[in-house]
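Quarterly update from the structural biology core.
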Amino acid sequence: MSGMPIADLVLTNGRFYRMDRDRSWASAVAVKGGRIVAVGDASTVEQLTGRETRTIDLGGRMVMPGIVDVHAHLMMGGQAELFELRFPSTSRFETLIDKVRERAAAAPEGSWIIGGQWGSDLLPKLNTAEALAALDAASGGHPVMLRDDTYHNRWVNSEGLRLAGVTAATPDPEKGSIGRDAASGAPTGMMIEAAAGIIECTIATSGHYTAEMDRAAMARSISTLNSYGVTAFLDAAAMQPILAALKGLDDRGELTAWSVSAMPAVEPSFMFGIAGDELIALSDQYRGAHARPDFVKIFLDGVPGARTAAFHEPYTPDPVLGCCFRGSTIVTVPDLIRWVGKCEKLGLAVKIHCAGDAAVSQALDAIDVVRSFNGPTKLIHHIAHASYIVPADIPRFADLGVAADLSPFLWYPTSFLEGHKQTMGEERAQRFWPNRELIASGALLAGGSDWPVMPNPDPWNGIEGLVTRRNPGGEFPGVALWPEQAIDVATALEIFTINSARAVGLGDTVGSIEIGKSADLIVLDRNVLEIPADEIADVKVLTTFFEGRVVYERN
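Predicted structure, tokenized:
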């Protein structure tokens, strides 16, 4: 045994799915100093086992690498879980009103009622004077703000509008719009894209959020991620307080996941503070052992349900926007080229929000131009959401080395999709997430939740949807969304582990069970590769190990 490291931890009698290129299995793993030092069978780890080694018999359970979530919003996720009114996006109008009435009855006088998420398909109904009157009647004098299922738009009651100073005379902000009654011109409370920021800013400056709430929200978020087996993530819009919170957790040894952050190039409408060059200049002070501010986030367009995503073909006819409206991008191609080029010089990758197919084309065009000047790069830029793509653009992901950031978990029928059908027409709306074609083209696909756009970051719901293209929750029974784009379970697992690890720059550290990698492992209650596909969403994580220590254990 001389010269051999004595392991801190040995896991035996397991079924370890290594997530290597051969899709091989092992039955035992040894860990030393948070890293994997042996993978094999009982005889492999026996010589590394000493008196101080902790040994765990896994009873034949399946073990796999921790999940890597390439698109989440940590602060907002924790705030939603701890402090906000929650209801499913399938809720009907009457349910929203009832929920607000219940919360208003118990809320402290004058306090904001904040919640979500109403389905995009409800937007036309909510954008009326009658709906606003119903919300006002239920709110008991409290200001109310309810977010939609995209987190891009808000529905606000009259008291909320008053506090924000929004009246019939208030002009639409650039890159946003205020819903107005067709007859009177009075606001309906519907705040689209940048207009939502007016309300969010009002709440933020009112003192509603405290530093204690922020700390509690971030800690809750990490704990929630660990409970679903997530051991690495990318925060997709990390403002300075988020970077500081992550670095603080890391410094205290409380960051129980690898953290990669994308710093906004421009201040988002729903978050506030310094952005762009000013924020990037501070990034090194927020870098830690597990905290890596290695990306820049660019919002290139909006969302289809609000007609703010940019498409090649027009939306369905609209009384206000007309018959030929295609949406528009927020950043010009020259500016996007400048941003990508600048970030590459700084060693930063770029995550570009693209919800419409024209935005995807523009992002690929910009990256193509930068490649023509800069040549190859080891940086992997992301197109976030990559949900509507014209066929000619599909091979360009692999050609340009761009990752398709698949998020959120909506590869199946939802109320979210019903909202798209209203604005795009049924046939176009259903050509949503061409995952199988992207894989066939050689593209790198990475899995993200976009939590709290998705109410929880449970990857097993997303994995089942990738495989079945049917709603795992039972809504829309018997209906599949573009089933030709379904993929197999093994490929879906790779998307959420080794592929995502490579996409966020952690491919040498996490994503597979290999000697030298971080001992980030999750023990499952069943073998995902041996159960019916429609049971994948029921998978439960029993134990989550981060660097060889237990950070979650199911009771």
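The first strand starts at residue 9 and ends at 12.
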